[in-house]
Amino acid sequence: MSDTKILALVGKGGVGKTTLSAAFVRSLAQMHPEAKILAIDADPAIGLAIALGVEVKQTLDDIRKEVIEAAKNGAGKAAVELLGEARFRIFDALVETEEFSFLAIGRPEGAGCYCAVNAYLKEVIDMVSKDFDYVVIDGEAGIEQINRRVMEKVSHLFLVSDASFKGVQVLRSIQKVAGELVMYEKCGAVINRVDNPEILEQMSDIGAPIVSVIPSDGDLALNDIKGQSIFALKADASVLEGAKRALEQMGI
Ligand SMILES: Nc1ncnc2c1ncn2[C@@H]1O[C@H](COP(=O)(O)OP(=O)(O)OP(=O)(O)O)[C@@H](O)[C@H]1O
Ligand SMILES: [Mg+2]
After folding, report:
1. Domains along the sequence of the chain with CATH
2. Which residues 6+ apart lie within 8 Å of 27 measured at CB?
3. Which tens digits make up the pLDDT trace of 81-140?
4. Which of 18, 143, 222 to mutate to test the pocket of ligand 1 (most atoms within 8 A of CB)?
5. Which residue CA neighbors atom 15 of ligand 1 most closely?
6. What is the pTM of this model?
7. Tens digit of pLDDT for each residue in 227-250?
8. Which residues line ligand 1 (CB under 6 A)?
9. Atom of ligand 1 at shortest distance to CA of 15?
10. CB-CB contact of 189 with 210 (8 Å)
């Protein structure tokens, strides 16, 4: 499908990206029961799997390594054959549920750099998105994946912050570069855990419109500590309502 909507959630650590990604997946599945939805956990810590209640067997990093091995051992194979094989492996690694498919980037072992798997993720987003109507990407905290153009093909960029100075500062720095590095159609900010509306007055210059404001959600906190997925929440939970508002405001 050429008109795939690719949603990505970015922002500072701990502001609610994973929770909202899961809430988006649940809301999209409910709003568009026929649609094909792919959830991508682009955070090496693999939090989205828990939030969606799926078990990860193979990550993108596992596949990347296998493909590199296969390429080394398959000197006779044509490049197109290896490419087909990579595609097959990626689709094979998708966790399928009735509501959505799921893929996790995984955590490369060894010190430091995620560049290789991030570069791979960028290609994979290109490769697999066509087969889905909606792709929801739970981004790694911070600005790295924007700078590395992993988010280049994202059509709907959600800047997520809590009601903190640092959170909003991160949004401002992402917003500044996203215009150049992300080919988005729409960009909007979601402000999470706002219990005092006065706080919003301090957030006028994020550079993107605020598309949803979400209060602290006691039911979500309880759900979280029990290790339950987003699907265990009541349909009228404020985080789910807030997610729906954000989707509507962004024209999804
Ligand atoms: N509106 C809310 N009300 C109550 N708790 C919330 C709310 N939003 C998020 N949380 C809780 O805050 C914590 C952090 O949220 P989450 O993991 O979604 O953030 P994150 O941005 O993905 O963090 P990280 O950058 O570490 O991946 C979780 O325990 C989550 O349950
Ligand atoms: Mg997270």
Report:
1. 5-249 (3.40.50.300)
2. 240, 243, 244, 247
3. 777 778 888 888 899 999 999 999 987 766 556 777 888 899 889 889 999 999 999 999
4. 18
5. 16
6. 0.95
7. 999 999 999 999 999 999 999 999
8. 13-19, 43, 47, 141, 192-193, 214, 216-217, 220-221, 224, 239
9. 21
10. yes
